[in-house]
Design a protein that fits this description.
This protein is mainly α. It has one domain. The chain has four helices and no strands. Helix 3 runs antiparallel to helix 4. The longest helix has 25 residues. The two termini are 19 Å apart.
């Protein structure tokens, strides 16, 4: 269904505009970093209380950076292919 919708130029252009808007305003490190950090800070006190986790706090503490690097790489990838929607 997506392929059929993107066959229509008007929809394709609008989709490209939406992706650009999301990349510029929401799916970027500047916007996401405080949200990710706040969530991490809220969860961290409970990490050691979880009996199913083997106590790898270092890995847990590196997760925000891992997520931010993913966001940066994914946004770069998407941006590099937006021209295909022209």
């Amino acid at each position: 269904m997506t392929a059929r919708i993107l066959d229509v130029r008007g929809f394709r252009v609008r989709y490209q505009e939406l992706l650009k808007e999301i990349l510029n305003n929401h799916f970027n490190v500047d916007y996401m970093k405080p949200i990710i950090q706040e969530m991490h800070d809220q969860i961290r006190p409970y990490f050691s209380k979880d009996p199913y986790i083997k106590g790898n706090i270092v890995k847990f503490d590196n997760e925000p950076q891992f997520i931010l690097e993913f966001i940066e790489a994914r946004a770069k990838y998407i941006s590099s292919r937006l021209h295909k929607l022209d």
